[in-house]
Design brief:
Layout lengths: L2 H15 L1 E3 L12 E6 L3 E7 L4 E4 L11 H6 L8 E9 L9 H8 L7 E10 L8 H11 L6 E3 L3 E3 L4 H11 L4 E5 L4 E4 L3 E14 L2 E11 L3 E8 L5 H11 L19 E2 L5 E6 L1 E3 L9 E8 L2 E9 L2 E3 L2 E5 L7 H4 L2 H5 L22 E12 L2 E11 L10 E9 L6 E8 L2 H15 L5 E2 L1
Parallel strand pairs: 1-10, 6-7
Antiparallel strand pairs: 2-8, 2-9, 3-4, 3-5, 5-6, 9-10, 11-12, 11-14, 11-15, 12-13, 13-17, 15-20, 16-19, 17-18, 21-22, 21-25, 22-23, 23-24
């Protein structure tokens, strides 16, 4: 396995295994020794050292510029073993109370930056000593980075569940850091305050015919545009779910865009007028591999929600509904990106570009299409098998899309669909053939 693959695998594992908690959930922490440290607001990065080269490697494969101050100091590190050390790359600003994620991106674009630092918090691979506890790992890292200006290990404080809240008040409350990382030798916890956001509802799925299962949410952008930031299914009581349906069903509108929920059902889009307050445990603006999160931006056009293009966005994590905000409007002032900035999240290019809008792109064309019908005592049934050539592969979309449409009048769910993206026409054609073999039997007529 290459070093980059190891870095990606470690980040993916950590991101999926840590548990998000708030100070109010401190009782969920395990008994016994715990080790707490400040959570840095930066970019996950790994320090890779061996006899041939030394790198600060990001999960997307990029490295820190060699001409940056930290890049020059990197070459001075003395280490006889081959080792990969995980940490946070952050930018230190004398004018700010704490480091900010956006400052790291700005620093990475400069060749002679002197603000970037590396805070090491774990050993990914390669330590020669038997490091069977977290403090031993930190001590080993500290020895390797001893005497350096731009590299250091995180400051770890031994504690227990009864003392964590005092540490949180000091490190997060008084020092105004992003959060607290708490761990033992088995589990990692990230303690942060909940993030409260006022967001616009742009779609919904149904739990039953008069109750909402989940809602799709967006922030308001300039010019009456709306950027999807995630969905929420923790909505509270059945009464609230029915109240949401009552209000959203009156706002239901068409859209040429299709967005599916976690259960596979498609969202019914709604005119962006209803505002809700939600609490999220965290907000992410990049995927496990370090690539930016992009989501669809929308605008209202002739009473329908028109998709514009994929735009840098965020994912709200472990969110729940607080209340419907009848006193708020679906405007940039009430539901804009400044809410994320107040919470410490700065997302570059969180805006639309008219040149990238789907309506300005070359339209998709049908590459292959087969339609079959069947009439029986249960009514009429139709099945469509379509391959589209999108002409949008230069804009982050797949080159081909396979679309399956299945309609049966008397079935409990009359219409069923499936959509599969492909960049290889032969693979799309193979899927079409597989679907034909599975779905078209005796009695079906091709039209």
């Amino acid at each position: 396995m290459s070093k980059l693959q190891t870095v990606k695998q470690y980040k993916s594992h950590i991101a999926s295994s840590y548990k998000l908690i708030t100070p109010e959930q401190a009782s969920e922490l395990p008994k016994g020794k715990l080790f707490a440290s400040k959570k840095y607001d930066g970019l996950f990065c790994c320090l890779t050292l061996d006899s041939k080269e030394k790198k600060l490697l990001l999960p997307n494969g990029s490295t820190v510029p060699k001409d940056a101050a930290i890049g020059k100091e990197l070459q001075k590190i003395q280490c006889d073993e081959e080792i990969i050390i995980a940490g946070e790359l952050y930018a230190l600003s004398k004018d700010a109370k704490r480091e900010r994620y956006s400052d790291v991106h700005a620093a990475l674009s400069k060749t002679n930056d002197d603000k970037m630092h590396f805070a090491a918090f774990d050993i990914v691979q390669g330590a020669t000593e038997n490091l069977d506890s977290y403090p031993k790992k930190i001590d080993h890292i500290a020895k390797i980075l001893q005497g350096l200006t731009y590299f250091h290990s995180v400051e770890v404080k031994e504690t227990d569940a009864s003392k964590v809240l005092n540490l949180f008040d000091d490190i997060v409350g008084e020092q105004q850091n992003e959060g607290l990382v708490i761990r033992n030798d088995r589990r990692v916890y990230k303690m942060k305050q909940n993030i409260d956001l006022d967001l616009v509802v742009v779609g919904y799925t149904l739990q039953q015919k008069d109750a909402v299962r989940s809602i799709a949410l967006a922030i308001a952008l300039p010019g009456g545009q709306f950027l999807h930031v995630g969905s929420v299914g923790t909505l509270g009581s059945q009464e609230i779910r029915k109240k949401l349906f009552s209000q959203l069903s009156r706002l239901a509108c068409p859209s040429p865009y299709r967005m599916s929920a976690s259960d596979g059902s498609l969202y019914q889009f709604a005119l962006p007028q209803l505002v809700v307050s939600v609490s999220a445990k965290d907000v992410q603006n990049e995927r496990h591999d370090g690539s930016p999160i992009t989501r669809m931006a929308f605008a209202i056009n002739a009473d329908q929600l028109e998709p514009l293009h994929l735009t840098p966005s965020v994912s709200i994590l472990h969110a729940s509904l607080n209340e419907i905000r009848g006193d708020k409007k679906a405007t940039e002032e009430d539901c804009g990106v400044q809410q994320l900035e107040r919470a410490g999240f700065f997302i570059k290019d969180m805006k639309t570009d008219s040149k990238k809008q789907i309506s300005a792109m070359q339209p998709s064309v049908i590459s292959e299409k087969q339609v079959y019908v069947k009439t029986s005592k249960d009514g009429k049934a139709v099945k469509k098998f379509i391959i589209l050539k999108t002409h949008k592969e230069d804009h982050g979309y797949p080159k081909y899309v396979f679309y399956f449409f299945d309609m049966s009048e008397k079935r409990k769910t009359p219409i069923q669909r499936d959509v599969r993206p492909f960049n290889d026409l032969k693979l799309a054609q193979k899927i079409l053939k597989d679907y034909l073999d599975k779905n078209i039997k005796k009695g079906w007529e091709k039209i």
